[in-house]
Design a protein that fits this description.
mainly alpha
Length: 191
């Protein structure tokens, strides 16, 4: 603990770098699409690599990075959300139950978006790791393109909810969670 500012290290560099890499890569992929296909594809690959690494880190990483440290049951998550709305939720040093649910949702939707993009890339361009596994078909391409767009847009919606939840939680617990995700430090004392 740093005695001067009463803070403790919570988020390790792997979590912070992974988080901000996902932010940059997702928005790069989202806004490039067909016009800048190479950037779109490489951003998608970066997302896939970060997801795979995050899954491994979720079982082997530092205390607050491990899934068993922060994943809670749906009942605990809904109770936390109800208490948060009433502005009387418990403060967590690591991820709170709503944040944990959002992490899982984002990982699932990002993984689905990446997978559907790789399938689509193989079908449309005959390139990528699944190119030899997928067959070209106008109907299938249209279906996978629709799946990819829906998942990307749902992920964007989740990102918006994540930002709103982070801002509200920052307000309720009087802490700057954006700063914490940059520095890795949070206030040591609990509410």
């Amino acid at each position: 603990m740093n005695i001067e500012d009463n803070s403790v290290k919570v988020w390790d560099p792997v979590i912070r770098i992974g988080h901000w890499t996902l932010v940059i890569a997702f928005f790069t992929a989202y806004f490039t699409e067909d016009e800048f296909l190479a950037a779109h594809v490489w951003a998608g690959y970066a997302i896939g690599v970060v997801i795979l690494f995050r899954l491994v880190w979720g079982f082997t990483g530092s205390e607050h990075a491990r899934f068993n440290n922060f994943v809670r049951s749906p009942a605990v998550t809904f109770t936390y959300l109800a208490d948060l709305v009433r502005q009387r939720s418990k403060r967590y040093l690591g991820h709170n139950p709503a944040g944990a649910a959002m992490i899982l949702a984002l990982l699932i939707f990002l993984a689905g978006t990446v997978f559907s993009g790789v399938v689509l890339y193989g079908m449309e361009e005959g390139a990528g790791p699944l190119a030899t596994w997928v067959t070209q078909s106008a109907e299938r391409e249209e279906l996978w393109e629709e799946i990819h767009e829906i998942l990307a847009n749902l992920t964007l919606l989740l990102v918006g909810l994540h930002i709103a939840g982070m801002l509200f939680s920052s307000y309720v617990h009087s802490e700057n969670l954006v700063k914490a995700m940059m520095t890795g430090r949070k206030r040591a004392n609990r509410d």
